[in-house]
Design goal:
Distance between the termini: 63 Å
GO biological process, one term: DNA replication
Protein name: Replication factor C small subunit
Largest sheet: 5 strands, parallel
Order of helices and strands: HHHEHEHEHEHEHEHHEHHHHHH
Organism: Haloplanus ruber
Subunit structure: Heteromultimer composed of small subunits (RfcS) and large subunits (RfcL).
CATH architecture of the largest domain: 3-Layer(aba) Sandwich
Helix content: 55-70%
Family: Belongs to the activator 1 small subunits family. RfcS subfamily.
Length: about 325
């Protein structure tokens, strides 16, 4: 990195500054990286379908493939489109076909990367299927999505499918430590653990949390992390559930009120944290199953438009009434 780049480090977005440039630099997806590298080494790249949650390396792997295949010429041979912004059939007919048809030199094929491909309409996906057949000789498609079930079967059958899992705590912790060292940020172990917990397997969220927390004081500690993320401490969530199960509904409701009002958490965030932490609570299996059942009901009703506070209080009340 040049001195000029270094002087503006504080104004840079770290998720882009520290985005891996090669497949070797991708954290936490070892098996997928090995398979992708074998395709590149054999010069036998098929159409690819990447599916998985946000922030786990799908887009990074796509651009890393282009860099390794085309080196310095990668930008001219790699078309990236966000299908959630451009969802219609015209995108497939116009932009994708024009790029696939255009002349190029020195390479056997060009790469078209469709991010959030599960947002494409059914008609657009059908047109894409035909385009994949028509330009199979000189174009490779990489499709990225959160849910592969929303991609029509004829497209899935034409692709090598890679299912990206949420990143492990170790992978996120290692990357966060590396960035903290590079940026000369003081962190505590509790702070790092809080970043990993708040990230929930999402590397982007972890890096953004580190950058935000680094602006709040001299040291990135647990307090700074939970403040910038609006995340509740696991012990607060556990205390609320335990109070409800013990039949102390007023105390459970008071804790919920603190999370929703004082901490400013959304009801969906409370449910997400409850779901992630349910099996870590000191509860017997029967109680945990009851909690999961009530969580599912509350989550569905909130998704359908019900009042968050009413549903969460009803969930705690139901737990308090269980024998």
């Amino acid at each position: 990195m040049s001195d000029a780049e270094g002087s503006s480090a504080g104004r840079e977005i770290w998720i882009e500054k520290y985005r891996p440039q090669t497949l070797d630099e991708v954290h936490g997806q070892g098996d997928i990286v090995d398979r992708l590298q074998s395709y590149i080494e054999r010069d036998d790249l098929p159409h690819l379908l990447f599916s998985g949650p946000a922030g786990v390396g799908k887009t990074t792997c796509a651009t890393a493939i282009a860099r390794e295949v085309y080196a310095d010429d990668w930008r001219g041979n790699f078309l990236e489109l966000n299908a959630s912004d451009q969802r219609g059939i015209d995108v497939v007919r116009d932009r994708i076909k024009n790029f696939a048809r255009s002349s190029f030199g020195g390479f056997d094929y060009r790469i078209i990367f469709l991010d959030e491909a599960d947002s494409l309409t059914s008609d657009a996906q059908s047109a894409l299927r035909r385009t994949m057949e028509q330009f199979a000789d000189n174009t490779r498609f990489i499709l990225s999505c959160n849910y592969s079930s929303r991609i029509i079967d004829p497209i899935q059958s034409r692709c090598a499918v890679f299912r990206f899992s949420p990143l492990s705590d170790d992978a996120i912790g290692a990357q966060v430590r590396q960035i903290a060292d590079a940026e000369d940020i003081d962190t505590t172990e509790d702070g790092l653990d809080a970043i990993v917990y708040a990230a929930g397997g999402d590397m982007r969220r972890a890096i953004n949390t580190l950058q935000a927390a680094a602006t709040t004081g001299d040291v990135v500690d647990e307090e700074a992390v939970y403040t910038v993320t609006g995340t509740a401490r696991p012990e607060e969530i556990e205390s609320m559930v335990e109070a409800a199960i013990e039949g102390n509904f007023p105390r459970a409701r008071s804790t919920l009120e603190t999370l929703l009002v004082d901490s400013g958490m959304a009801g969906g965030d409370v449910i997400d944290q409850l779901h992630r932490s349910a099996w870590d609570f000191d509860l017997d299996d029967r109680r945990t199953v009851q909690l999961m059942e009530r969580l599912g009901e509350a989550d569905y009703r909130i998704t359908e438009g019900a009042n968050e506070r009413v549903q969460l209080e009803a969930m705690l009340a139901a737990l308090a009434l269980e024998e």
